[in-house]
Write a structure and sequence with these properties.
Blueprint: E1 2-6, H1 21-32, E2 39-41, E3 44-51, E4 54-61, H2 68-79, E5 86-92, E6 100-104, H3 112-121, E7 126-131, H4 141-145, H5 154-166, H6 168-172, H7 176-188
Parallel strand pairs: 1-4, 1-5, 5-7
Antiparallel strand pairs: 2-3, 3-4, 6-7
Helix pairs in contact: 1-5, 2-3, 5-7
Subunit structure: Monomer.
Protein name: Peptidyl-tRNA hydrolase
Main location: cytoplasm
């Protein structure tokens, strides 16, 4: 079993924030792969399903971004899983908008959701880094991260999320390179 966690903040006012791209990814993956109903569990919302041959639990922590690690750690403890069974979908300032990169471990780059998970589990979990681009100056970062996607970005956002859901089987099988490559190819179409 794998646990895929999308990072975000709960509530409708945050729904289209760039910081909520992890929640958006979970929602699109769940719909594309006919996951079960949403349940309240592990201080968050979960949906269970299969992607390819792999059983996957999608988790959206309801703890707000800065406390995401509490929810994630609770789920891993319940299923007696190690951090290598965890994949975290999150926004990444240091990637161009709509670029997707996967890696295990790495720095936190000031991301409080990652910091919280790192505090509870250590750094050795897989991350799907979803580019939101940098606004150009550090004084504009908070407004950019906590701002809604613009109407002009919605087509690219939908294309990227759809590509991630379509290629999710590669991620489930552990072929991160194929997942990244195929998502990039779909973004070029």
């Amino acid at each position: 079993m794998q646990i895929w966690t999308g990072l975000g903040n709960p509530g409708p006012r945050y729904a289209l924030h760039r910081h909520n791209i992890g929640f958006m990814a979970c929602d699109v993956i769940a719909e594309a792969h006919d996951f079960g109903p949403v349940q309240k569990k592990f201080q968050g919302w979960v949906q269970e399903g299969r992607i390819g041959r792999e059983k996957v639990l999608l988790l959206k922590p309801a703890t707000f971004m800065n406390e995401s690690g509490r929810s994630v750690a609770e789920a891993l403890r319940f299923y007696k899983l190690e951090p290598d069974a965890l994949t975290v979908f999150h926004d990444e300032l240091d990637l161009a908008p709509f670029k997707v990169k996967v890696r295990v471990g790495g720095g936190l780059a000031g991301h409080n959701g990652l910091r919280s998970i790192n505090q509870h589990l250590g750094p050795d979990f897989r991350r799907v880094r979803i580019g939101i681009g940098h606004p150009g100056h550090k004084d504009r970062v908070t407004g950019h991260v906590l701002g809604n996607y613009a109407k002009a970005e919605m087509d690219d956002l939908a294309t990227m999320l759809g590509a991630m859901a379509s290629e999710a089987a590669w991620l489930a099988e552990g072929d991160d390179a194929r997942f990244m490559n195929d998502v990039a190819l779909r973004m070029q179409d």
